[in-house]
Amino acid sequence: MIKYVFIVLYANDNGDGGTFALYSLISRYAKVSLIPNQQAEDAMVSNYGLDIVSAPMRRAQWMKKRLENSEVAKVAIFLLTILGTSMVISDGVLTPAISVLSAVSGLQQKAPQLKQDYFKRNGKDAWISLGGILLCFTGTEAMFADLGHFNVRAVQTSFSFVLFPAVSLAYIGQAAFLRKHPEHVLDTFYRSIPGPMFWPTFIIAVAAAIIASQAMISGAFSIIQQSQTLGCFPRVKVVHTSKLYEGQVYIPEVNFVLGLLCVIITLAFQTTTDIGHAYGICVTSVMIITTILMVIVMLLIWRVSIWLIIPFCLAYGFVEFVYLSAVLYKFTEGGYLPIVIATVMVVMMGVWHYVHVKKYWYELEHIVTNESMRQLIQTHGVKRIPGVGFLYTELVQGISPIFPHLIEKIPFVHSVLMFVSIKHLPIPHVEVSERFLFRNVESKTSRMFRCVARYGYSDKLEGAKEFAASLIEGLQSHIEEGHFITDMQIQETEAQTASTGDGDARPRKAGSSTVYVEEVLTAGETTVLTQPRLSSYSAHSSGRISEEQTRTIAEEKQFIQRELQKGVIYILGETEIKAGPDSSFVKKIVVNYMYSFLRKNFRQGEKAFAIPRQQVLKVGMVYEI
To answer: Is 44 domain-assigned?
Structure first.
């Protein structure tokens, strides 16, 4: 209770808990992500920064550099995260089975004799039985994973003043009963209940088992959604079940698999004994992983004194490893089950993320710059056709190699072309007003744009129609701001050149207005940020330019609106990933077979983005990584 309720809960990621929440929290403070899609503009998102405890900076900076410069550390943190996630998913399989079997075990009335003066009399067997004690506090990890459904204060209050006293009284009562009736050790709970209260208690116990199972399954849904949005899990259908609480999700495919596995495990084991062994390994492993990640959070983010971190590691690390050693002793008696499930999940998530990272690096190494775009358009005599085209790409820098491949086959592009990247930041939510980041491609008059649509890992993706409407609305705002900035830059250059006579740009104040402008070049593209460089313009000149500017903006907005009415086409890259001819045998197996199997058996892009099939144009291409 002390570890989770009063320490770990404070390591939530804007209200979300679980292993992936810890990973995303660490990713925000150090570049430990294996995908190089970090942008300076991301730090401007209001939910990105967190209040941190003021403490020594030198140790935090040292930790940050070590994590960012070590590929081994990055991979180790990632593997720990997906291992913890896999164990929680295993927990989601085992919880329903053991909870329901425990509840209905009241129907059995058999029990062996109870031995007494415990550790001294039983020695090794007493140590092994520590695994059973884990069942008294297994819900704490689930509580952290389900944090998105409640706030920290509500969990702390209910856990400390309702749940903990109630559970403690229940165990104390059973212990008192066993002192008089030691022979009823295997069904103490039901034996200790007065006869008339048996059936009401039985019904409540089954209901409680269902609630506990649902909580764990919901936690599995949440972390799978988080892992999917961070590129660590194949695409699945995510259904948001509440309009008020965005963190409440349902995943049909995962629910079916969990249900099937629960039935198989219940039929195979039939009693809680062997399932308990499996359950103990599962829960203790997640607790140890949480402890390790918490140490990183304390060092890097909270920056607390090392003399507080050491007792935390020694106290909880020692206790959890002792429990793990006890439950591992029962590996062959059911303990292997979560290891098998977790291994399958780790392999699946690891393969998917490995190829995902390699694919991103391939596209990054083959990006199309603005100069290449001009040459490409001139060489192929590209013509513009009516309508708006959205070309989806994972790149947030430059243009994907899918585009020149498309132009080589079909030298036509839409009158308005948008290169759209769906990017998930390592935070739960991104405000709608901060969602889109626009850039011009090729030139101001080309009507080609880049848009990075930024989401948190708990945000819901809109349907195709709603997304297109939001995108066009954001584009029109970008056009207004873009023309304004362009006019100011022209005036600034003219004013500065005239004042110095030699083209030397020196900021000065003129007239009655002051503008802050900074231009940043990224992979051949231009974006406007709000970090200032002082520039100025005369009030007299601004009036004349303003009329022209207003007219131009209105014409551009009307043009885009007309093209939108002519139709929208979604262009998706249908990339086939293959291992290069010089790749190792293992890499060929991973890329050509394992990844290919996952990709073919999970959702494709148009289904994940809810795009109407009649509006999809797919471009096939082979990547050799």
So the answer is: no
